[in-house]
Design goal:
With 312 residues, the protein is of the alpha+beta class. The chain folds into 2 domains: 150 residues, Aminopeptidase (3-Layer(aba) Sandwich), CATH 3.40.630; 118 residues, 3-Layer(aba) Sandwich (Aminopeptidase), CATH 3.40.630.30. The protein contains 10 helices and 13 strands. The strands form 2 sheets. Strands 1, 2, 3, 4, 5, 6, 7, 12 and 13 form a 9-stranded mixed sheet that branches. It has a 4-stranded antiparallel sheet with strand order 8-9-10-11, with helices on both faces. A hairpin with a 5-residue loop joins strand 9 and strand 10. Helix 6 runs antiparallel to helix 7.
Length: 312
């Protein structure tokens, strides 16, 4: 077995092996190129193929930022292993361990001190390791010194026949009496919304809204909450990756959370989706408090991920 830097000569074989091994997460060559090769920080010196003669038997994609990401900047001491897989007939032969060790040596030479599995923004494939569907990966990374952290959850909901409950409509009426307005995005709020998101939730949220504005989809996929002074105090959106079913993010200013604004906003978005013939809602990742919020609204967990890191 030998390890080489990534070459597009093996692109088809890499994607085929991906689909045979990461069976819960099949991809197309187009998606592979878009999220891996065409990411600003892609570096063939951090992307490796394991070959047995000329057969692709393993693959590892790692990342270290070359370009700053919003307020996070370059994160100079942080690196990522975005994805790793090995042909099922060649497992337990030390291939995965060799790929990881090789990667860690190079990342360390570049100044990396902490390696995170999966959760690389903005183009992550996974927010962590799927604890139910990739148990072998959990066992492997435990063995090579990666430390588990918090869990995150992918969740979904069927929206066929969705209706806003009487309870939620009553809450909405009371919120409106208190001066709150719920409405679709209007471009006259563009600058205010971008500043609101940056200040309240960070650059990643601002980036999502900005891309919707640039793509002329913001009026269709963003909802706003305004207070009695017609200032933005809440926001939610969908379709951040172009998929109309993908929900999120959603956020409300701290001082108005006691009014139940978030729940009302979520219910309105579900109804807006159902009206458009979008009968399935999902999102990739939320934390434990988020899970509790969504479960109160009938959203169910369908995957659970564990965050993993290692000091090198």
């Amino acid at each position: 077995m030998r390890i080489i830097n990534y070459s597009q000569k093996y692109e088809k074989e890499v994607v085929e092996l991906w689909n045979k091994t990461l069976t819960m997460d099949p991809i197309t060559i187009h998606k592979f190129r878009k999220q891996a090769l065409f990411d600003d920080n892609f570096d063939s010196e951090l992307c490796f193929i394991a070959l047995e003669e000329e057969l692709v038997v393993g693959f590892l994609l790692a990342t270290k930022r070359k370009f700053p990401y919003l307020e996070r900047g370059l994160e100079p001491t942080r690196g990522w292993i975005n994805v790793l897989f090995v042909h099922k007939d060649y497992r337990r032969k030390g291939i995965a361990a060799a790929l990881v060790e090789h990667t860690e040596v190079i990342l360390k030479s570049l100044g990396v001190e902490t390696v995170t599995l999966g959760a690389y923004s903005p183009n992550y494939f996974f927010p962590g390791i799927d604890k139910e569907n990739y148990k072998e990966a959990i066992q492997f990374f435990d063995k090579v010194g990666y430390i588990p952290g918090k869990e995150s959850y992918s969740m979904c909901k069927d929206l066929h026949g969705y209706q806003i409950s009487e309870e939620s409509l009553d809450k909405q009426a009371k919120a409106q009496e208190a001066g709150f307005t719920f409405q679709n995005f209007d471009y006259k709020y563009s600058i205010e919304l971008l500043e609101f998101l940056k200040n309240e939730f960070g650059g990643g949220w601002k980036r999502n809204a900005l891309m919707a504005m640039q793509n002329n989809t913001a009026e269709d996929c963003i909802l706003l909450v305004l207070n009695s002074e017609q200032k933005i105090v809440g926001f939610c959106m969908r379709m951040i990756d172009g998929n109309p079913m993908r929900f999120g993010p959603i956020g409300v200013k701290n001082e108005v959370r006691n009014f139940g604004i978030g729940g009302i906003l979520f219910d309105i978005m579900q109804f807006e989706m159902e009206k458009r013939g979008i009968y399935h809602l999902y999102f990739v990742s939320t934390d434990a408090p988020g899970r509790r919020f969504y479960e109160r609204h009938g959203v169910q967990v369908f995957r659970t991920y564990v965050d993993y890191q290692k000091l090198i």
